[in-house]
Structures are given as structure tokens and as C-alpha cells.
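Incident log, support desk, overnight shift.

02:14 A customer reports that sequence design results differ from what the structure should imply. Their input is reproduced verbatim below. On-call engineer (initials T.W.) acknowledged and began investigating.
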């Protein structure tokens, strides 16, 4: 069996394994550039790949009958012969992603905090690395995490004015000189987000941190740039690719050519559960169950009987209108059998998968403090009943920060929204995006109802309702497929020229 490893360090190989595996390591001279947050151990009968919970990027493995390719870069393991996986696409469209899924046949992803074992058959099995609970004060924990990362660094904080980014900004101001900090807030002139801008400006001013406002360019949305490394699975961040490149370049210019540490608050709402599925309230049994249901109803402005029904029966089946009916498997049966603990773990897994997607080169120093393993362990030490009351969510984090830095900074309910920017972008790029989808993989393979897609597209583009989630998923999928094929084609052309 031929084994090719790109830009990753083989940490262990048994003497007997050297005879059984035909191992080839590429870029061995660039040892300093190799990942130290993953381990690859080669045994007689299997290979284990551990992507540590402290990792920053997912790893890809392509498995065929006679070879295995492993790399942190998707385009190093796929080629023009790699086909789209119909089954993975259907799981994606039904919101049933499996651990290790990519949209390509025979290609798997080892996400952050995942251990994969590849046998000689070959087959691959995945295991999530457990994150231990760690008791401690959330604000103190966050302070230690951020302090270790930003010391003597220029720092950009992506600042929405919400709880997560405010917690990061406030903590940064307490551990490093404010002259090294820049808070950057993006906004849409179409969203009427003046309350968010006022709040973020007020907080930055109170902390004496330089604060810049960047207006979203709607024409830059749904544009994937050349500097964007492509993931093996669609992510929401792809829609922001070109705009984020603009932000990253802006921050580098601001710091006179120095690439700053980028702090992003993504994941705080996942680990401390900003949005709680009613079904998860089952875990409150024995912890003032009926009182917590009443508090949940007050917090979310919903009816007691409606909430109780969802606790018993589970949530309503997902509303899929574009995917053809014969392909709608739904997630309800599996969802109903999932425990509240597993649901919480899945929410955290979703956040880890999102930050594990490949980054742009300007984001080499990006860091997500709220998804640090010590922060996740801290959040998991609180049971669901402790996370909310009738007036607030994420109580442990909010209370801890308020005690340390002052309650006036953490009582905001607003958070930046860009719904109208996406609606405007859909209107501007109507021809391009509708052609992309109606001529794309899903339509060509008759997986979606193109008329339903066009109708949903128009409704979203005109701002009649909120952006349709199913519509956005299909657009992201087709963007990823088309850009991946395009880059493979360019690579093939370059290889042909050089030969």
C-alpha cells in the first residue's frame, strides 16, 4: 500500500510497518512549516491520525484501493479523477453531516479534536477526542488564554458588539497595551443596525481602543478569492471570502505591514448555548424542571404548552422545499434518539468544524479563544439548568465577566446582523448565482427542484422573508464544487505547460 504524506510530521512508525507500507513524505525539508498539532502513527495494520483539540485546521485523507494520501490541504489529495460523492451531498442537503464527511468520493476530513484510524483494507473509523470538564471562573479562564496569545503582538479583534466579541475585547484591554489593539466592526447600511454600531462604538471608546467601522460591499459576497484555501465541505464563511480578504488586508496596512493576531469570538454561543433546543430541557429533570420550562418560555417568548410538546415529541420536521421529496430523509428519527448531552456535544462539534476549515494566508495567526479546550471544558462544567434564567442566556459567562469588568459592558442583547446585505447581494448577483445552481451538480443530477429554487431565490432576494437556509446551503455547495474543479483544472494546465 502506497502512503503519501504532505506537510505533516510522521511522529511514529514501527520497524515492521516500514516493510508493509510504501511511505513517501513530501516537503520534508520544510520541517518548521509542518503541523505540530497533529500526530501520525504508522503501525503494522493501521495508521492513526490525531488532530489535537488545540489544532487550527482540519486534515484530509484520500483513500483508494492501492494508495492513501494525507495532507492539511485538500488540493494535495484530490485530482481531476475525484468525483463528487452523491451520498455525502444528500446528507449535507438533509442536514445530516457525518463525522469525517467531505463532498468528494473517497476523501475524508479529520477535524479538530478527532482521531482517525485507517486500516489496511482500507477503511477509516473516526473517534472524537473527549474534552474533560474543567472547573473554574470563565472570565479568569478567558483572561489566561488570551494573555498567553497576545503578549507583545499586534491584535485585531473582530468586534460585533455582542457578548462574545465584547468579552474578548475587554479581556484584551486588561492584559495588553491598547495601542496594540484594533477593533474592527463591519456593518450593512441596509440592516438598520444603528443600535449595534452605537453599542460597539460606546464599548470601544470606554476601553480606549481604536475602533474602525467597515461597510459591507454586497458585491463582494458569494465571491471566493484566490487566497482562500478550499475546504472539503461547504461552510458559511465561504460567502464572506472576498470581504474577509479585504478586512485582513486592511488590518495589515493599519499595522504597517505586520500580520496581526486575529481574535474571533466564534463559538461562545455554541459552548454556553445561546440557543437551546426545547428537547434539551429534558436534562433539567431533577433540577427544577417545570420552573426551568417557565423560564425558558419567558426568555424565548414562547408558549408553555408548545414548549412542553417539543420536549416530548421533539422539534418539527425540517422544512425542505428545494430538495426533491424523494431525497428528503429528514433528521427527526435520529434527532429523537439523541440525548441532550450528545446534542450539546454536536453543537460544539459544529463550531470546531467551522473554525477548522482552511484559512486565507493573511489569517495565519487567527485564534478563537472561546473554543480553546480549557474554555470548552469550563463551559461543560455547567449543566443546562445553570446556563439560563427568565431574562438571560449564557449566565455563567455573562455573570463572571460582569463581576470582573463591570455589568454595563455585558447586558447588551443586540448583535450585528447582515441579513439585508445578503438579500441585496442575491439581487445584484441574480443571474450569476441562479446560473451557477441551475447548471450545477444538484440540478444536473435532479436532486433539486429548479423551479422551487428560483421561487425561493426571488423571495429571499426581494426581502419578502428572511434568507432561506436551504437556499444558502445549495449556493455554498455549488460555489465550492465549481471553484474546486476550476483550481484542479488550472493546476492540470500548469503541470501540462511545465512538462
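02:41 Re-run completed on a clean worker. Output:
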Amino acid at each position: 500500500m502506497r502512503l503519501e504524506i504532505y506537510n505533516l510530521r510522521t511522529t511514529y512508525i514501527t520497524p515492521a510497518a516500514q516493510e508493509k507500507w510504501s511511505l513517501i513524505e513530501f516537503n520534508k525539508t520544510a520541517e518548521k512549516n509542518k503541523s505540530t498539532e497533529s500526530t501520525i502513527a504508522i503501525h503494522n495494520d493501521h495508521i492513526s491520525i490525531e488532530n489535537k483539540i488545540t489544532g487550527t485546521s482540519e486534515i484530509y485523507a484520500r483513500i483508494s484501493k492501492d494508495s492513501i494520501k494525507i495532507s492539511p490541504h485538500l488540493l494535495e489529495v484530490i485530482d481531476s479523477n475525484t468525483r463528487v460523492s452523491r451520498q455525502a451531498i444528500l446528507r449535507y442537503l438533509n442536514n445530516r453531516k457525518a463525522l469525517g464527511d467531505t463532498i468528494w468520493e473517497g476523501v475524508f476530513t479529520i477535524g479538530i479534536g478527532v482521531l482517525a484510524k485507517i486500516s489496511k483494507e482500507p477503511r477509516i473509523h473516526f473517534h472524537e477526542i473527549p474534552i474533560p470538564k474543567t472547573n473554574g471562573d470563565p472570565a479568569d479562564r478567558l483572561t489566561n488564554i488570551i494573555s498567553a496569545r497576545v503578549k507583545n503582538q499586534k491584535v485585531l479583534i473582530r468586534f460585533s458588539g455582542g457578548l462574545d466579541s465584547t468579552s474578548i475585547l475587554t479581556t484584551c484591554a486588561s492584559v495588553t497595551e491598547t495601542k496594540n489593539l484594533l477593533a474592527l466592526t463591519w456593518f450593512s447600511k441596509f440592516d438598520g443596525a444603528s443600535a449595534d454600531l452605537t453599542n460597539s462604538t460606546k464599548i470601544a471608546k470606554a476601553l480606549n481602543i481604536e475602533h474602525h467601522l467597515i461597510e459591507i460591499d454586497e458585491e463582494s459576497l458569494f465571491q471566493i478569492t484566490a487566497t482562500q484555501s478550499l475546504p472539503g465541505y461547504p461552510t458559511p464563511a465561504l460567502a464572506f471570502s472576498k470581504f474577509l480578504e479585504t478586512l485582513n488586508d486592511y488590518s495589515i496596512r493599519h499595522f504597517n505591514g505586520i500580520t496581526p493576531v486575529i481574535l474571533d469570538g466564534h463559538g461562545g454561543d455554541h459552548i454556553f448555548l445561546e440557543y437551546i433546543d426545547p428537547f434539551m430541557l429534558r436534562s433539567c429533570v431533577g433540577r427544577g424542571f417545570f420552573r426551568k420550562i417557565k423560564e425558558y418560555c419567558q426568555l424565548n417568548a414562547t408558549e408553555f404548552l408548545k414548549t412542553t410538546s417539543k420536549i416530548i415529541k421533539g422539534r418539527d420536521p425540517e422544512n425542505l422545499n428545494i430538495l426533491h421529496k424523494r431525497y428528503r430523509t429528514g433528521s427527526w428519527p435520529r434527532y429523537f434518539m439523541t440525548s441532550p448531552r450528545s446534542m450539546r456535544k454536536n453543537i460544539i462539534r459544529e463550531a470546531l468544524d467551522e473554525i477548522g476549515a482552511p484559512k486565507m494566508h493573511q489569517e495565519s495567526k487567527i485564534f478563537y479563544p472561546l473554543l480553546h479546550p480549557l474554555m470548552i471544558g469550563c463551559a461543560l462544567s455547567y449543566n443546562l439548568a445553570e446556563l439560563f434564567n427568565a431574562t438571560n442566556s449564557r449566565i455563567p459567562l455573562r455573570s463572571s465577566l460582569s463581576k470582573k469588568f463591570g455589568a454595563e459592558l455585558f447586558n447588551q442583547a443586540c448583535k450585528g446582523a447582515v441579513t439585508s446585505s445578503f438579500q441585496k447581494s442575491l439581487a445584484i448577483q441574480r443571474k450569476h448565482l441562479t446560473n451557477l445552481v441551475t447548471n450545477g451538480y444538484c440540478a444536473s443530477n435532479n436532486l433539486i427542484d429548479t423551479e422551487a429554487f428560483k421561487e425561493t431565490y426571488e423571495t429571499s432576494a426581494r426581502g419578502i422573508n428572511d434568507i432561506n437556509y436551504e437556499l444558502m446551503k445549495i449556493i455554498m455547495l455549488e460555489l465550492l464544487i465549481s471553484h474546486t474543479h476550476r483550481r484542479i483544472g488550472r493546476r492540470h494546465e500548469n503541470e501540462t505547460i511545465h512538462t
